[in-house]
């Protein structure tokens, strides 16, 4: 018996709730007819999820709990060893990822909003690494702390994704009212950072030798990067950046590049005032794809499974505002067409999207009665 199945089985023994999934009516899309199958609706503001090798899920809840959820709907008691979080505004316990070598090392990674450990004011995004055991998390170590701590409860970013080479990308936000910091290299605000799984800094990071720059920075000029995925063919990082009123972006962040926020944007302030009169500034990168008006994008995946062959290689982007999934039809890296999936069929904001080892697609909604939804081909 593998360690993963031992851990999973013992934790699920603490199940709180089992919800019988009910198949909804078939939904016809351009290329597939599917059903939305609610596995559970008993999660409290879930934010992130990660599949274990067993097929069960680790799911974060914003208030600071980590649970194990089975595809039969069983939900564990809160797992021990989770760090203290600042559950305020957009902050809380956010993303979860498992190590590429989880089968041999059992490492799990959590991103969250952290108070100043020295007692100062403000909070920032932090990442903890810990081992998953039959009783919860042990050996927890904070491997990254965004600097500086800041007194604002918005724009923490927080997606975690591993590169094919084993680097850990952490996406961050500009902390809203500190948006100008996205154009500097001396804070983590509005950045994507790249570290090693133990928190050390790769020697080939773009600003390692730049005086005054934080060596963790991979790219900058971002607003609030809440989605990340690795392109299955190129191995490149793609990100989903939550814009203001208009200007949600898909980017392909390259080492050392500036993605323009806030000196160039396709969005405006929520009161319709101008952020910048420019959509492009020399020395900055244009978005690979963008939305006006915004759909409030969250996470995204490249679909690589066999259950939906006509979606193979497409980019599926979850949306908060529209409670739907945007399917971007790709030819190579070029977006050829966009299809809106499940509009009106979900009814709650879609916070996360993942592909399961079974090839089905899974959604999390971030309501107080948050749902784990399985998308399957209609029978």
From TrEMBL:
<dbReference type="InterPro" id="IPR011041">
    <property type="entry name" value="Quinoprot_gluc/sorb_DH_b-prop"/>
</dbReference>
<feature type="domain" description="Glucose/Sorbosone dehydrogenase">
    <location>
        <begin position="43"/>
        <end position="373"/>
    </location>
</feature>
<dbReference type="Pfam" id="PF07995">
    <property type="entry name" value="GSDH"/>
</dbReference>
<protein>
    <submittedName>
        <fullName>Glucose/arabinose dehydrogenase, beta-propeller fold</fullName>
    </submittedName>
</protein>
<keyword id="KW-0732">Signal</keyword>
<dbReference type="InterPro" id="IPR011042">
    <property type="entry name" value="6-blade_b-propeller_TolB-like"/>
</dbReference>
<feature type="signal peptide">
    <location>
        <begin position="1"/>
        <end position="24"/>
    </location>
</feature>
<dbReference type="InterPro" id="IPR012938">
    <property type="entry name" value="Glc/Sorbosone_DH"/>
</dbReference>
């Amino acid at each position: 018996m593998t360690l993963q199945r031992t851990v999973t089985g013992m934790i699920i023994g603490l199940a709180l709730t089992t919800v019988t999934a009910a198949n909804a009516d078939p939904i016809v899309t351009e290329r597939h007819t599917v059903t939305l199958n609610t596995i559970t609706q008993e999660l409290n503001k879930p934010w992130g999820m990660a599949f274990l090798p067993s097929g069960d899920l680790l799911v974060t809840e914003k208030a600071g709990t980590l649970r194990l959820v089975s595809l039969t709907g069983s939900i564990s008691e809160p797992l021990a060893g989770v760090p203290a979080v600042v559950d305020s505004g957009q902050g809380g316990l956010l993303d979860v990822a498992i190590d590429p070598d989880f089968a041999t090392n059992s490492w799990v990674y959590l991103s969250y909003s952290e108070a100043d450990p020295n007692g100062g004011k403000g909070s920032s995004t932090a990442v903890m690494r810990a081992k998953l055991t039959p009783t919860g998390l042990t050996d927890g170590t904070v491997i990254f702390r965004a600097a500086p701590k800041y007194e604002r409860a918005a724009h923490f970013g927080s997606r975690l994704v591993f590169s094919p080479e084993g680097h850990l990308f952490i996406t961050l936000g500009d902390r809203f009212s500190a948006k100008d910091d996205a154009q500097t290299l001396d804070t983590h605000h509005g950045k994507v950072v790249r570290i090693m799984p133990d928190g050390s800094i790769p020697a080939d990071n773009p600003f390692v030798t730049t005086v005054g720059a934080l060596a963790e920075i991979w790219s900058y000029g971002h607003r609030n990067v809440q989605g990340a995925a690795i392109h299955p063919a190129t191995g490149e990082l793609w990100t989903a950046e939550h814009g203001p009123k208009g200007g949600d972006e898909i980017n392909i962040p390259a080492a050392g590049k500036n993605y323009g926020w806030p000196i160039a944007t396709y969005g405006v302030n929520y009161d319709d005032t101008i952020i910048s009169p420019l959509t492009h500034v020399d020395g900055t990168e244009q978005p690979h794809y963008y939305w006006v008006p915004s759909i409030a994008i969250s996470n995204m995946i490249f679909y690589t499974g066999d259950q939906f062959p006509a979606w193979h290689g497409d980019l599926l982007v979850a949306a908060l505002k529209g409670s739907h999934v945007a399917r971007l039809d790709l030819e190579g890296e070029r977006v050829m067409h966009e299809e809106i999936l499940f509009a009106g069929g979900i009814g709650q904001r879609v916070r996360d999207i993942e592909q399961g080892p079974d090839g089905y697609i899974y959604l999390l909604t971030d309501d107080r009665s948050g749902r784990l939804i399985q998308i399957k081909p209609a029978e």
